[in-house]
Amino acid sequence: MEKMEEKDNHVHATTKRGGLRTMPFIFANEVTEKLAVVGFNANMVNYLTTQMHMPLTKAANTVTNFSGTASLSPLLGAFMADAYAGRFWTITIASIIYTVGMISLTVSAVLPQLRPPPCDHNQVCQEADGGQLAILYISLLLGALGSGGIRPCVVAFGADQFDESDPKQNAKTWSYFNWYYFVMGASMLVAVTVLVYIQDNIGWGWGLGIPTIAMFLSVITFVIGYPLYRHLDPAGSPFTRLAQVLVAACKKRKVPMVSDPRLLYQNDELDDPISIGGKLLHTNHMKFLDKAAIVAEEDELKSPNLWRISTVHRVEELKSVIRMGPIWAAGILLITAYSQQNTFSLNQAKTMNRHLSKSFEIPAASMSVFTMVPMLLTIAFYDRVFIPLARKVTGLDRGITFLHRMGIGFVISILATFVAGFVELKRKKAALAYGLLNQPHTMIPISVFWLAPQYSLHGIAEAFMSIGHLEFFYSQAPESMRSTAAALFWTAISAGSYLSTLLVSLVHKFSAGTNGSNWLPDDNLNQGKLENFYWLITLLQVANLIYYLWCAKIYTYKPIQVKGKDGAESEGKGVELSIRV
User: Fold this and answer.
1) Which residues cross the membrane (predicted)?
2) What CATH number corresponds to the domain at position 360?
3) pTM value?
């Protein structure tokens, strides 16, 4: 009885906190992390080729490997947050690690001895040696580890500030995802314009030093907001619980299935700490896993061995994670397509006329502004115009299902890479007309704004697909695994980046001709066939869209028994509509 009173007091105390007033403190951390990551990542291929003197394909793969590692590390950060430290302390410690990495990276950009000497007058360049590359890679690794603690936790921590048992606040949760991505996109816009301009025209020391200082200040700001936050206690390792269900099901694989699911093991005392918002209800698929919840004669229910018996809620946690897998995989290829903006699209821009006037030239990396602005406009339109209209038709708080939203993003992404191939043909035609095919460092008299359509389409696609993906993971993941769910979003980005590296390497290898020709040449894009690479990605995305539609058609939303603010329980069916093909 005392434990129940203590728990009620804890929930009551936390519900007085949170809400919109916490958003400035949380968003400040996300904004500065994105300033640092995007401000460098958008221009990293330029830094690696002009400052570290790497070949183009090696630089492109370094960029995507860094992006992949930075997006894979959230699994570690999510595990620490969900199992032990909680989201607040994970974000705080990770931000400090990230700041240290940024300081190291800034120092390496400032001190001449940490970079190779400038190219001589014959454009003969000495590539960075092992020691110089080691410092660079250590700095990037610290940044990746820091991102791993920030990325999965900030989005989940922000959503935690709204009480889902309150219908008014629950609607704000889904709007929060749009505005979280909007704020993130706005900071990215500043990064690819202001910071990239500083890097190209003032120096890398200032270009990296400014976001480093901002990151340091954001850590202080985030910690100051501590008294205002709703803090949900970590519920133990989610991966251990999933493993326990799997082991228990294997141990009881020969036990006959019960005739009535109501006979399966339930234990409120075990499940309450990991199901504050409501318990997962039994589903009829993946019945093999249900065997983990069958009560056998040798099971001791007063002090259950969780490696032999699991509750229905814990079994359904594992089912939820398995169900999300195919949808997770569908998001990988979109990131592969998107990744080319920071590599080959950037190099296209470097060869084109970027002058707005005789004295001002757009930095090549700032072309990402044509991704960010359409993305921000699409998010604002979606949240303020589209959702209210769609809500009247569908009755859903978020307007349309996240599966429909993701599907729209996939279609637009296909169009983006399809268009990119034709733009590359036009760029090379201009190079041929002016006799510049053999002069990779000479500007081609064709406007860089020809690249704007492919950048813009990628931005619109991201506004639909990426936010829908994020909503999907947060909504469909078990409540106690929401940091891990956000990490799944970033691991899809990681897998897409690594797939890009693999695809670039394979195409570079197998498209090489005996005369030195290559679809993706190291030193002269004018003599390559980048358009074929873009169209290859387009075909892969078409196949991926077909796969996604099939996954969406058969997907089963998690059913949950929702706890209201008064403690009453009601049954929900996932509050989504099935997508129809």
Assistant:
1) 88-112, 133-159, 179-198, 205-229, 360-382, 402-423, 486-512, 532-550
2) 1.20.1250.20
3) 0.76
